[in-house]
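Example (one chain per record):
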Amino acid sequence: MSSPEWAAKALESFDAVVSATPGFRSRAGQRLMAEQVARTFSSATLGKVDEESGEAAPTRSIAVIQAGTGVGKSLAYCAPAIALALARGTRVLISTATVALQEQLVNKDLPALLALMPQPFKFALAKGRGRYVCKLKLDRLAGTGEAEGEGEGDDDLFADEEAAARAKRPRHETEARMQFYSTMAQTLSKGAWDGDRDSLDTPPKPEVWSPVAAEGASCTGKHCPAFSQCTYYDKRKELVGAQVIVANHDLLLSSLGARVLPELDNCLLILDEAHHLPATALQQFACSMDLSRVTWIERLSSRGLRIGALLEVEEIADIPRHAAQLRQTMQDLARIVMDVYGDNLKSQRDTWGPARVRVPRGELPEQLIAPLGLLAASADGFLEALRAISKALRAEMRDKPDEAKRLSTLYAQIGMLAPRLEELHATAQLLLQDAPQGADRSFVPAAKWFTLEVDGDFIVVKAHASPILPGTTLRNHLWSAVRGAVLTSATLTSCGNFEFFLREAGLHGDEAATSLEVASPFNYAAQGTLIAAETHADPKNAAQFTAEMVDALLHDIARVEYGALVLFTSREQMRQAVDALPTAMRSVVLVQNALPRTQLLKRHRERVEGGEPSVIFGMQSFGEGLDLPGRLCESVFITKLPFAPPDDPVGEARAEWLRAVGRDPFSELVVPATAIRLAQWVGRAIRTEEDQAHVYCYDKRLTRTSYGQRLLKGLPPFALEQRAPL
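Predicted structure:
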């Protein structure tokens, strides 16, 4: 078929699904979005193209679609995309930012669509390896596995990087962990648990889950003795036969080039909640290294030498030199960091969280450069030796399948620690990135910073580095591989246009990218009111503003009849509001983190459905993805404009670079980012065409400043009321 014919067929499938859905109302915006999805995916060239033989260069096609709340965007992209994938013999890869949307797609939207589509299709959920349990590790920690191949006690496969930390752990906590692992092993062996961390009744804390999580670096795949019972590989089998795969942005970016997901030049890629993609990219390509806790290097060296000697690997001869050099260089670096930045770091010791100092302009002090170069070289040499050992181990596994268990354990002993060495190498390289001689002002430096924290009696110095422009990172690593993609969210425009998001996502100036804004079907002017409730105090004067804002907030929430949501910009702000609650109101308020999120929302629903008032106090994570229709959320209270925290080193470094090249970071970066965040927060108010809601904002900058007017342009067209200070 030609591209227009494919697009027409895809739209026919969409129309058939809509007409077959009981009680479903046709939405002009939804069909408009479906048309754009069909056009985009039908025109992209998929698969390998041999340009040398005269074939035309592949056509890339990317659509950026803002679909307002109520458009029904999941059906608008799923139906035409799946129809096209089936017609073209390819697959659809949907990536989301949150587990909640992944689960909604897999458990609700896709099963409903499957029942209505004329052609059957299979779908599967893809999660990162670390979300699943490693049976081999679990059995050993639970005491149900054999101890074969562990070697010396201090070289145990599951040895903590800091034995001292384990010794300080209370005995009852250690016993509780062992009981937890034992219970997990029993429920897994009985088939009462599927090995997915997210399906546990109470997901464990990271430090408890990490020792039993499946990891690529320590996994021997089909050579593992527990391979036939491996949860991760069972889930991978489901992906093989699926035409639709639901993943997440973290997995998408972390697995680029790893063949975990469909090849991006031969599938239809949908990025939902796409406004999260730039931040996810920065997180994925940032790195750090601990300069103080280095005992793992000795264990890795010991394991490498012992295992390499067993396999007669010649490259191990240099391991002791590399390991000794790494330890010494890291200690030297920690000392130099404290010599240069110690006073600054120590002066912050009373602040919440680690003390931090950023390197201005990314220009490292001269005394750090030579040690970092030595560290990078030593890590590179050490890694080469480990790669030779891993290669020899894999060959041995192929040749001696009867020794799989012993060899898998040896492989895991290397793999448990090797990622730390890889991270160390990557961090050193990014820290050493500097402007080349003669570079103009367009050179973009990396953000570089050091932190100091106290772990018991132990002082920990860490080095960090990160790219500062997500768009450049995405353009180089993602879009260079993609042929057909749709990016969508309810908040992609900022201050009324797509400019900011296109730059952040690496699509600005990309000829393959088009944008479309699909308006919400809601009548915001009739359904909602935005109340600009001003204060006398300037919001920049935190103490006076918070005190006045809390008084106004308590006055307003006292009149809440059903459900309401209060969104705070800091923990301290929320704490002060909680402390100021009168006794009679304390039973009405549910505070984030006082209960697990699911329990808190359940209690909120029960109260409202029982005719009682219920007010949720929450922060950023409650400002999006929360769906509380009708009486569950009749009022949203925004305590302050949600500017990003001022202590973000990546944001600081980027603002510094923008100023250096004559640009205004506040107007170009801060305001647009705040606009998207504010639109998400306001979006909690109206969720259906029947909802009626009020949105209160206590920050007078929204109506009193020029940038506030820009923020207003990005909000739904509510009826606006201005209220003088109480």
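Caption: The chain is about 45% helix and 15% strand.
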